[in-house]
């Protein structure tokens, strides 16, 4: 059964009533019913699985493709971005994930995304045509902020690159 459930600042088609918490819950989201920047978000679970695979070249390639779909150009988010964020946080906390610092940098870009909000503020008439985009940005930023409680554990990591990326993300969230 598919229902509309609030997930980190937005409403998304989720199977059942339980909210996705970690990567094990990726199947709870009806990815075919939402869109990313490129179109159907149906490929996102496969990209997340590749990022989690432990195969560094495959993980980096998948993360690059995922970024293109949920935070294109480093600032254009889509409907699927907010619902993808909890899975990125989960991956960033896993020591076996080979591209943790890059995931944290992606989360920072998502937390900074304000393209549509800024445009609509300057040209209010655009809200009629692009209001959903503003809501998607807000939901994506909220999704990143919702899991900021894991930052202290990431700052205690032995990997200097992960710690640096975490500090940059924390600074963005505090700003």
Compact summary:
The chain is mainly alpha-helical.
What key attributes describe this structure?
175 residues, mainly alpha, two-stranded antiparallel sheet, disordered N terminus
The rough form would be described as globular
Question: What is the first-to-last residue Cα distance?
Answer: 40 Å
Strand composition percent = 5-15%
What is the SS-derived class?
mainly alpha
Strand runs, count: 6
- Output the radius of gyration: 16 Å
The largest sheet has its strands arranged as: 1-2
**Average of pLDDT:** 84
Number of helices: 8
Q: List the uncertain runs.
A: 1-18
Oligomer: single chain
Percent helix range: 55-70%
The total number of structural domains is 1
Largest beta sheet, briefly?
Answer: 2 strands, antiparallel
Order of helices and strands: EEEEHHEEHHHHHH
Describe this structure in words.
The protein is mainly alpha-helical and 175 residues long. It has one domain (2-174). The chain has eight helices and six strands, in the order ββββααββαααααα. It has helices spanning 44-52, 56-70, 81-93, 100-112, 115-122, 127-146, 151-155, 160-174, and strands at residues 2-7, 10-15, 35-36, 39-40, 71-72, 76-77. Strand 1 and strand 2 (10-15) form a beta hairpin.
